[in-house]
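From the shared-data thread, chain only:
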Amino acid sequence: MQEEIYDSILIMLIEEGIEITTDIKERLWIILSKYDYGKKVTDLVLTDEDQNNEYIKKFLIAKTVKGCTKRTIEFYGITLRKAIPRINKNVVDITTEDIRFYLATRQINDKVTKVTANNERRALSSFFSYLHMEEYIRKNPMLKIEKIKEDKKRREALTEYEIEKMRAYLKNDSRKKAMFEVLLSTGCRVKEFSEIKISDIDNNKIRVIGKGNKERFVYLNMRAKVAIEEYLKERTDDNPYLFARSKGGGRGLIKTTGRPKCFKDWWKFKSQVHPTKNAESRYIEYTIRMIGKHCGIEGVHPHKFRRTCATMAMRKGMPIEQVAHMLGHENISTTQIYYDLNQEELEENHKHYVNI
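Structure, as tokens:
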């Protein structure tokens, strides 16, 4: 009933020439959800939290067996254990209307971004698709839930000036210099980067494990290759990872008689390096942000290096199919988003190609 009224109002507004924005749709759905249409009786039934949790547990086990990464499993678990209790119904009774209302309130009341709402929608879709496939539910409530239209923001790559400025700053720090050059040359995701082992490096290429545990090779330019060689010459430990973790914490904190102090070149001393663990993603992100901060450059983070790598490759003529493979993208449309095409470049290319 609510869905029929919702559709009827939207049709009326369209016929009146009113532009229907995502915000209008969400607010209309929330308003209609406040009323009782006479058919919703499940609200009077106490939800079976144990049964709901059992369904979530079975779903997570199935995803684990399928081979999803630990990070993906954690994301599904956190999202579902937050969403299902807020919907406050037995999983088998949840409807399309309930899902729409939940996603709308997340954006309007909780002020989450459309990206976050879309990620939650994706988790719910995977969950209910599993329940439907396993015949726990007769109808999948997610089939009519469309992807939320996200605001498109132009994300810029690093400029040549910014790159050279950071290089000059790093000339006397071989570890940070190696991080900088490898990220820029390979376009690795930060998690892939943090898990690189020295044994994964074969001359000018590195074997990495990407999303979905898929293996691919990324490549080192001469700057990155030389930076790695200079950095490894100063390592004295036996840790297998290219970038190891310190025993005292991400930034090399060592215990003294008082408060822990930062030991700048801890990675040069075997006694300060953890024997088996790799540098965490958050430590790498922090290091890269600090490099940008010290150079007075805003918004520097590992993913910006990934975008810069893709942009530089395509500007120099690398086919987009090869760039997609280098970045570990299954869909070329994802790679296209990474290309930072500025107006000056567009104008110059127009003169070259559209010279009629």
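Residues 39-45 have pLDDT under 50 and may be disordered.
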